[in-house]
Amino acid sequence: MTKTRMIGWSAMVICGLGYASCAGVAALAKTGSLDATMALLLGAIAALIGECGLWVAAGCLGLTIFKKRQALFDRVFRRRKVVAAQA
Description:
Layout: H1 3-31, H2 36-76
Helix pairs in contact: 1-2
């Protein structure tokens, strides 16, 4: 597994944990175990963590899919890798 994929899947786990903790805070607030101000604060922080994880995961995993597709096209159309000119 490449480094980019490892980062992407780790970020996806963080995304799940963030959103799950946000739902847990909402459940605690609904049962009355947590007052509204603290629930809003903790829920917003947990949702922000989940959202950041989602964006990082989408970026990393999308990049790996793009690279795989580009490599497939290179093989199918028999393209050579372009080497940058050295100065």
